[in-house]
Amino acid sequence: MLPVVNFSKAEIDANIAVEETETQLAEWSERMLIGVAFKFGKNSSKEPHS
């Protein structure tokens, strides 16, 4: 029974790590999009703002 418990705990820990990484990636993606919107404008497909 102990190996099953250890495996389950390891699996839960791995899932938590994935969720934390996904949250961090979402934050970074949002920051990058905000930077692009600032430079080029939200609806612009043309040149950057000066």
**Broad structural category:** mainly alpha
Biggest beta-sheet profile: none
Task: Count up the helices.
Answer: 1
Mean pLDDT figure: 87
Low-confidence stretches: none
Order of helices and strands: H
What does this structure look like?
- By secondary structure, the protein is mainly alpha-helical.
- The mean pLDDT is about 85.
- Helix content is about 80%, strand content about 0%.
- The termini are far apart.
- The radius of gyration is 20 Å and the shape is rod-shaped.
- It is built from 1 helix and no strands.
- The protein has one helix spanning about 1-40.
Could you give a quick summary of the protein structure above?
The protein has 50 residues and is mostly helical. It has one helix spanning 2-40.
How do the strands and helices of this protein lay out in sequence?
Layout: H1 2-40
Question: Which key phrases capture this entry?
Answer:
50 residues, mainly alpha, 1 helix, 78% helix, rod-shaped
